[in-house]
Amino acid sequence: MILSKKDNHFYLKTIPIFALSKTIYYTIMQSIHTYDFSNKRALVRVDFNVPLDKETLEVTDNSRIRAAAPTIKHILENGGAVVLMSHLGRPKENNEPRFSLKNIVSEIEKVIGYSVKFAGDCIGDGALEMSKNLKAGEVMLLENVRYYKQETAGSEEFAKQLAKHGDCYVNDAFGTAHRAHASTTVVAKFFPNDKMFGFLLEKEIESVDKVLNSTAKPLTAIVGGAKVSSKITIIERLISTVDNLIVGGGMAYTFVKAQGGKVGNSLVEDNYLDVARKIIADAKAKGVNLYIPVDTLIADNFSNDANIEEVVIDAIPDRWMGLDVGSKTIEDCHKILLDSKVILWNGPMGVFEMSNFEKGTKAIANSIVEATKNGAFSLIGGGDSVAAINKFGLAKEVSYVSTGGGAMLEFLEGKELPGIKAIRD
Ligand code: AMP
Cβ(383) to ligand 1 under 6 A? Predict the structure, then answer.
């Protein structure tokens, strides 16, 4: 039970250990803001699963390294040493060289401004010798934890070996927080009083909390993307929370067809028509303003060079397909968003990867930016809306852009992520 929460940094939990004597013990869930790192080796789980150039194996996008840098620097500047652990890709067998974290050592050094020692393994005597001798202010990187299949299997014995590298454990890998792997979850149990979130993970939790437990209203969620089936749980979760729910992208056509509209060749999941009808009914019962696009850009084939027309969304001619929302929808969404105090965006409004069908997604991004300037809190959470906001160069103009795709989706669905639970328990 959490007794108090101060500045989001410090939590007290009661743990009744001896029920008979009714003794109540207080334990502290550590916070990176207040923890004393001096002369401690912090085992830090980061998500350095970065893209590499296929030929040169150089890092092509270092955003995940930059995202973890504040945590690493904080520990070093507060007298600690840092042992970094991460996975990279999905190696099928041990030591596939293209998945070695050795490839990213120089990029980490560049980003954090400290030299980084590399251990050729993540467990075993050699690596342990290196971490034991690490001095305050020094950084080392363990080899890819996924070189061992015990990592994804969540092996306790493997986690125990990893735990030997640190006096405390910091989880800053939001991207893998939904996995109950050895380095993301199981390892935490070996640090009962010395485990904490890193700044990045803490920020992700705070941002979702600001949306799902918001008292500021109206709260608007935009859920787009390809399919109803992959977003149904998040929609069901959001419908009890939001004031406005804007449905966009490919999944809108299932809603339109469910109401008897003609959608031509648009993406439709026929086995989700009943689900769509239920969502419409639930929204009505709960007083949620469910906004389904009213017009659409249609194409005569799935290509940027296709012939394009704008039509009302429930009268799409045969053989044509809707690939973006239309101008009236853009205008309506703009009004809803400018009136909102809290905004969550997950999933694009159209096939934004093609320039002729990016307009709706771009317009939503711009409306969110404008609402944010007017004081709204905006969270861009989940895969392709993150890609979209980056593509339009607007990531810095919104309140927060999540770093975790699958993890964010599961978090928004209301699931307790194992990596987060392991720190809190
Ligand atoms: P998701 O990963 O479910 O958020 O889906 C994102 C994908 O949905 C993107 O690749 C978009 O191109 C695609 N998408 C968005 N709108 C449509 C549409 N009208 N028809 C087909 N695909 C779409």
Answer: yes
